[in-house]
Amino acid sequence: MPDVLDNVRELLPDIASRAARIDETRRVPDEIVAGLTATGVFRMLQPRRHGGHETDPVRYYEVIRAISEVCGSTGWVTSVLGVHPWHLALFDDRAQRDVWGEDPDVLVCSAYAPVGQLTPVDGGYELSGTWMFSSGCEYASWALLGVVVVGSEGRPVDFMTVLVPRADYAIDDVWNVLGMRGTRSNRIVVDRVFVPEHRVVRNYETANLRGPGQKVNSGPLYRLPFGAMFATTVAVPVVGVVAGCYEQYLASMRERVRLSLGGGRFADDPFAQVTVGRASSEVDAAVLQLNHNMQQMWEHAVAGREIPMMLRLRARRDQVRATERAVEAMDMLFRTAGASSLYLGNIIERAWRDAHAGSVHVANESERALALYGRGAFGLPVEDNLI
Asked: If you average pLDDT over residues 287-302, what whole number do you get?
């Protein structure tokens, strides 16, 4: 397997030099997406039988963190588009062949909120709906969309994810926001299109680690929980953004001389030193816990053992805490960086916006995930599709 991280590192100076422009134009350039495609990053979690690498997920998230350190929007888009081959591998093999049959580099986007309506018809379903916030959707040829199945009496009877080709949906450019501006997390609209049965999976089966895809993709990667894989996907870019900002902060503040508070070098200020100590510890803790939990789940999967529920709950607990820790560290750095960091386009200002924007993703919502862990710790039943 190629060393994707080494390939990606060659692109990082170019991505970093474009980060401000990406923020301004609200778009990762096509040539950056093409360059990342050539590195193999989007195939790291893709089945080998469809041209992928089936990489250890800890390595995948290391690559995502490296990209996010130089550009939050590029890291986020890469992370989200890169996890979808893993999810597609859980679908019926006919769906996988529909996407990768002719080109293993085809990209898939998503909008998992179950806001679409799926109505059973002969041979499949009829789909309609409007989904907000599909990151990187304009680079993708297919979309994974969350739906509710409506029964004959008009009531919800199931929640599913459907696979839809680009020809079957419209994209509305509505993403003009505070942070992660270049992710193109635009709106997807579907109006009464047919979805064959093989392009649909039940969320309940996915959460319980069973489905049609595992019958053909039997490797350990596809025995990992959706909750851990996807939730980590939207936490790692936030951690990466803050880790990159921390290095920029040190470089810019090391020789700064204050004009207020008695003057003197910023680096000699013990309060600044405490900030550096606290912020770096929060980032390190976030990375270590994310890696530790994912590595333990990977080891269970490789050994063919069932992944314990408390490990799954712990992974979600630490994933939301990783996001919280990163944002807390970002706020410490921002508060002490001085008024110059307020100027639009400043690296610290942009990182502050990106970290906060990424943290509001529903999978980064801390209270819900922490409450689920608490239920499990008390021995109460836990049911959630993000575990």
From this structure: 98
Contacts of 279 (CB under 8 A, 6+ apart): 242, 246, 329, 330, 332, 333
Q: Which H or E run contains 183?
A: none
Residue 100: exposed, middle, or buried by beta-carbon count in 10 A (0-12, 13-18, 19+)? buried
Pairing of strands 142-150, 200-202: unpaired
The whole-number pLDDT of residue 234 equals 98
Long-range contacts, stretch 269-277, CB < 8 angstroms, 24+ apart: 271/336, 272/336, 275/332, 275/333, 275/335, 275/336, 276/250
Q: What is the 3-state secondary structure (H, E, C) of 321-381?
A: HHHHHHHHHHHHHHHHCCHHHHCCCCHHHHHHHHHHHHHCCHHHCHHHHHHHHHHHHCCCC
pLDDT above 70 covers what percent of the chain?
98
**Separation CA 236–CA 293 (nearest Å):** 13
- CA-to-CA distance for 284 and 277, rounded, in angstroms? 11
Q: Residue 361 corresponds to which tokens in the numbers above?
A: 């993703």
Q: With contact defined as beta carbons under 8 Å apart, do 188 and 194 qualify?
A: no
Beta strands 142-150 and 156-165, pairing class: antiparallel
Return the closest-CA partner of residue 296 out of 323, 318, 280: 318
CB 171 within 8 A of CB 137: yes
Q: Would you put residue 280 in left (φ > 0), alpha (ψ -120 to 50) or beta?
A: alpha
